[in-house]
C-alpha cells in the first residue's frame, strides 16, 4: 500500500498542477495579508479561498486524475492486490498531495501573519474540506464511466455545495419565517460541510456580530468544545461515508 | 484696599479659630464616630484613625469634614445604611465602607446624600454595598475618585453604584465601579458632568441615563457591562471621548439611545460591541469623529430617528456598518470613512466619486429573519449584496454617504 501511495504522490508531483496550485495559494495568501492593512479583512479573504477554491480544485483535479490514471488502475488491478487497498491508496495519495499544497500555501502564511486559534481552525477546516471533496470526487468518478460526464458532475456538486445549498436554505428561511428556526439551522448546516466550516471559522472572526440573538444559538453549539468535537465528527463523516461508498463501488466495478 | 484685606483676613482667622479638630480612634481619640459627630459643630473636622468601626447608621447632620486616615473600615454588618448625609457642605474622605444592608424598600446605600448641597465624597473604597453612593435632591455635590465593588450576581439583589435622583450640578469624576446593577444611574439629574470614570462588569448598564437633560459625559470607559450603556428620554446630552468596549449579547449595546434629542456624540470609540450604537426615536443628534471598530453592527438606526447627522466617522472592520428597519430615511451620512467602500476617486479630491451605501441587502435580510445569520459571508449572500448595490430594491434608497472619504477621517 505504501508503494502505491508513493507512486501516486510522485506522479502527482511530477504532474506540476499541484505545484501550481500551491504556488497560487501561496501568492494569494501573501498578497492578501500584505495588501490589507486590516488583518480581519485578510482572514476573510483567506476564508473565501478555503471555502470556494479548495473544494473546486479538490473536486476537479481528483476527478480528472482518476480518469487519467484509468490505465494505471487497470494495471494495478491485474496484480495480486486487493482492490480496496488500491482505491484507498489512490485516495490517500491524492488527499496527501492536496493537503500538503494547502498547508504550504495557506497554513504557513496564516501562522506567519495571524497566529492563533483562528489560524488553527482555518487550517483545520481547509484540510477537512480537501479530504471531503477528494472523497466526493472519487465517488463521482467511480459512478460514471464517461469522463466528460464525470467532470460535469464534479462541477455541479461544487456549485451545489457552494451556492445552491445556501440559496435553498435562504428560500426555506423565508418560507418558514414565522417559525423559530434557529435550532433547526444548526442541524441544516451540518448537511453541508462548506457551511459547517464557515460557521466554525466565523464564530472566531465575527464574534461580535455572532453574539446577537441567533448567533448566540450557534455559539452555544459550535463555540463549545463539545460542539467543536461534534462538528469535527460530522466533517469526518462527510469524508468517510463517500469514501466508503466509492470503495464498495470500485470493488464491484467492471473495469 | 489694604485695610479691607486685613479685615477679610481677620474674619477668616477668627472663623477658623472657632472650628476644631476631633480625633476618633488612635491613642487619645474618642472611641466612636457617632460621639465625635455629637461633640462637633459646623465647620469642624473629624479625623478617624484606622480601625474597624461597627456603629450602624451614622447620620451626619452638621456641616463637617469626616476624614479617614489609611482607610478606616466602616462595617454595616449587612444591616445598615452606613453614612447618611443630611447637612450641606459635608466632606467624607478616605473610608473603606463594607457590607451595607440590602433592602429594596429603603434603597440602602453605602453613603447616601439626602436633600443637601455642596457635599464632597472622595477617595472612598466601597465593597459589598447595596447601592454605593446614593444622592437624592443633591445639588452641586462632587463624587470623586471612589472605588465601588459589589459582589451580587442577580439584578434584583444589587443596587446601582453611583445613583443620583432629582439632583443638579453634580460632578462624578474618576470613580471605578464594578459588579453593581447599573454602574452610574441618573434620573432627573441636570447640568452635571460624568468625567473619567471606569465602569466595567456591571450586571445591567455601565451608565444609565433617564430624563436627565443638559448633562455631559466625557472620557469615561465602559467595558463588558451586561447591556452596555443606555441613554433615554433626555435632551442636550454631550458625550465626548468615551470608550465603549466588549458589550456582547443581543440586547447589549455599546450605546443605546432612546428618545434622545439635541445631543452631541463626538470622538468616542466603539470597539467589539454587538451593536456599537442603537438609536430609536432619536432626533437632532450629531455624530462626529467617532471610531467604530470590529463591532457586529456599527450602528443600528431605526426608521423612527430623524435629523441624525453622521459626519467624519471611521468605520473599520465591522461585520455590518449600518442597519435599519424601514425604508424611510430622515438622517444624513456625509464624509465618513468606510473600509468596505469600493468606489474610486478620479479627480483626486480624496472624496469617493460614487456614493457608499452602508446598509447591505444581507443586513436587511438578517434584520427581518435572524436565522439567516447562518449564511453570513457565504457566496450567495455576497452575490445578493453585489446585485443590490447596482440595483437597490430592498435597501433604503436614501441611506447613503454621498461624500465617502478615501482615507481615514482622522
A few lines on this structure:
The complex is a heterodimer of chains A (255) and B (410). Chain A is mainly α. Chain A has 12 helices and no strands.
Report what the structure shows:
The complex is a heterodimer of chains A (255) and B (410). By secondary structure, chain A is an all-alpha fold. Chain A contains 12 helices and no strands. Chain A is globular. Chain B is mainly beta and 410 residues long. Chain B has 2 domains: 313 residues, Pectate Lyase C-like; 35 residues, no CATH class. Helix content of chain B is 11%, strand content 38%. In chain B, the strands form 2 sheets. Chain B has a 25-stranded parallel β-sheet that branches. The longest helix of chain B has 17 residues. Chain B is elongated. The model of chain B has no long low-confidence stretch (mean pLDDT 90). The chains are: A mainly alpha (255), B mainly beta (410). At the A-B interface, helix 3, helix 7, helix 8, helix 9 and helix 10 of A face helix 4 of B.
Write the layout of secondary structure elements.
The complex is a heterodimer of chains A (255) and B (410).
Chain A (H helix, E strand, L loop, with lengths): L1 H14 L1 H19 L3 H30 L1 H9 L4 H31 L3 H27 L3 H29 L6 H8 L3 H13 L1 H4 L2 H10 L2 H28 L3
Helix pairs in contact in A: 1-5, 2-3, 2-5, 3-5, 3-6, 3-7, 3-9, 5-6, 5-12, 6-7, 6-9, 6-12, 9-12
Chain B lengths: L1 H17 L2 E4 L8 H7 L5 E4 L3 E2 L4 E3 L4 E4 L4 E3 L7 E3 L5 E3 L2 E3 L10 E6 L5 E3 L2 E3 L3 E6 L5 E3 L2 E3 L12 E4 L5 E3 L2 E3 L5 E4 L5 E3 L2 E3 L6 E4 L5 E3 L2 E3 L4 E8 L2 E3 L2 E3 L7 E14 L2 E3 L3 E6 L2 E6 L2 E3 L3 E5 L4 E6 L2 E3 L3 E4 L6 E5 L2 E2 L22 H8 L10 H12 L20
Parallel strand pairs in B: 1-2, 2-5, 3-6, 4-7, 5-8, 6-9, 7-10, 8-11, 9-12, 10-13, 11-14, 12-15, 13-16, 14-17, 15-18, 16-19, 17-20, 18-21, 19-22, 20-23, 21-24, 22-25, 23-26, 24-27, 25-28, 26-28, 27-29, 28-30, 28-31, 29-32, 30-33, 31-34, 32-35, 33-36, 34-37, 35-38
Amino acid at each position: 500500500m505504501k508503494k502505491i501511495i508513493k507512486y501516486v504522490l510522485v506522479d502527482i508531483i511530477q504532474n506540476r498542477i499541484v505545484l501550481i496550485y500551491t504556488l497560487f495559494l501561496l501568492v494569494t495568501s501573501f498578497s492578501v495579508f500584505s495588501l490589507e492593512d486590516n488583518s480581519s479583512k485578510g482572514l476573510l479573504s483567506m476564508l473565501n479561498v478555503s471555502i470556494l477554491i479548495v473544494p473546486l480544485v479538490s473536486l476537479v483535479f481528483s476527478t480528472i486524475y482518476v480518469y487519467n490514471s484509468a490505465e494505471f488502475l487497470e494495471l494495478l488491478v491485474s496484480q495480486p492486490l486487493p482492490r480496496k487497498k488500491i482505491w484507498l491508496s489512490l485516495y490517500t495519495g491524492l488527499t496527501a498531495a492536496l493537503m500538503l499544497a494547502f498547508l504550504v500555501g495557506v497554513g504557513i502564511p496564516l501562522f506567519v501573519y495571524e497566529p492563533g486559534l483562528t489560524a488553527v481552525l482555518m487550517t483545520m477546516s481547509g484540510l477537512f474540506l480537501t479530504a471531503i471533496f477528494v472523497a466526493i470526487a472519487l465517488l463521482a468518478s467511480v459512478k460514471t464511466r464517461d469522463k466528460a460526464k464525470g467532470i460535469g458532475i464534479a462541477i455541479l456538486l461544487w456549485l451545489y455545495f457552494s451556492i445552491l445549498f445556501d440559496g435553498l436554505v435562504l428560500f426555506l428561511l423565508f418560507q418558514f419565517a414565522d417559525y423559530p428556526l434557529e435550532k433547526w439551522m444548526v442541524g441544516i448546516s451540518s448537511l453541508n460541510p462548506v457551511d459547517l466550516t464557515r460557521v466554525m471559522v466565523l464564530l472566531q472572526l465575527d464574534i461580535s456580530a455572532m453574539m446577537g440573538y441567533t448567533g448566540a444559538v450557534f455559539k452555544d453549539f459550535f463555540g463549545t468544545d463539545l460542539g467543536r468535537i461534534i462538528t469535527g465528527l460530522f466533517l469526518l463523516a462527510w469524508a468517510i461515508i463517500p469514501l466508503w461508498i466509492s470503495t464498495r463501488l470500485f470493488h464491484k466495478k467492471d473495469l | 484696599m489694604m485695610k479691607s484685606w486685613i479685615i477679610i483676613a481677620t474674619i477668616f482667622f477668627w472663623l477658623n479659630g472657632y472650628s476644631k479638630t476631633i480625633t476618633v480612634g488612635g491613642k487619645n481619640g474618642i472611641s466612636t464616630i457617632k460621639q465625635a459627630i455629637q461633640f462637633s459643630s459646623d465647620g469642624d473636622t473629624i479625623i478617624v484613625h484606622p480601625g474597624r468601626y461597627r456603629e450602624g447608621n451614622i447620620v451626619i447632620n452638621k456641616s463637617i469634614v469626616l476624614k479617614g486616615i489609611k482607610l478606616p473600615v466602616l462595617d454595616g454588618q449587612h444591616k445598615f445604611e452606613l453614612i447618611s448625609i443630611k447637612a450641606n457642605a459635608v466632606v467624607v474622605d478616605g473610608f473603606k465602607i463594607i457590607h451595607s444592608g440590602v433592602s429594596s424598600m429603603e434603597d440602602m446605600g453605602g453613603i447616601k446624600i439626602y436633600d443637601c448641597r455642596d457635599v464632597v465624597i472622595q477617595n472612598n473604597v466601597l465593597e459589598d454595598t447595596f447601592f454605593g453612593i446614593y444622592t437624592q435632591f443633591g445639588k452641586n455635590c462632587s463624587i470623586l475618585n471612589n472605588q465601588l465593588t459589589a459582589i451580587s450576581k442577580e439584578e434584583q439583589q444589587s443596587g446601582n453604584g453611583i445613583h443620583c435622583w432629582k439632583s443638579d450640578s453634580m460632578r462624578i469624576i474618576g470613580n471605578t465601579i464594578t459588579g453593581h446593577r447599573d454602574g452610574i444611574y441618573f434620573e432627573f439629574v441636570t447640568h452635571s458632568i460624568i468625567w473619567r470614570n471606569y465602569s466595567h462588569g456591571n450586571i445591567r448598564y455601565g451608565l444609565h441615563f433617564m430624563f436627565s437633560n443638559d448633562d455631559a459625559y466625557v472620557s469615561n470607559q465602559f467595558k463588558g457591562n451586561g447591556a452596555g450603556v443606555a441613554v433615554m428620554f433626555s435632551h442636550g446630552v454631550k458625550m465626548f471621548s468615551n470608550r465603549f468596549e466588549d458589550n456582547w449579547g443581543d440586547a447589549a449595546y455599546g450605546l443605546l439611545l432612546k428618545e434622545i434629542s439635541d445631543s452631541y456624540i463626538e470622538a468616542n470609540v466603539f470597539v467589539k460591541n454587538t451593536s456599537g450604537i442603537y438609536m430609536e426615536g432619536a432626533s437632532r443628534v450629531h455624530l462626529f469623529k467617532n471610531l467604530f471598530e470590529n463591532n457586529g453592527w456599527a450602528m443600528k438606526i431605526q426608521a423612527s430617528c430623524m435629523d441624525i447627522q453622521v459626519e467624519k466617522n471611521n468605520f473599520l472592520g465591522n461585520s455590518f456598518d449600518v442597519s435599519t428597519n424601514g425604508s424611510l430615511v430622515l438622517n444624513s451620512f456625509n464624509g465618513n470613512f468606510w473600509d468596505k467602500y469600493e468606489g474610486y476617486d478620479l479627480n483626486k479630491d480624496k472624496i469617493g466619486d460614487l456614493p457608499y451605501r452602508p446598509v447591505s441587502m444581507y443586513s436587511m435580510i438578517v434584520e427581518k429573519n435572524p436565522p439567516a445569520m447562518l449564511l453570513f459571508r457565504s457566496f450567495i449572500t455576497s452575490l445578493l449584496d453585489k446585485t443590490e448595490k447596482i440595483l437597490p430594491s430592498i435597501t433604503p434608497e436614501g441611506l447613503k454617504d454621498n461624500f465617502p472619504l478615501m482615507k481615514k477621517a482622522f
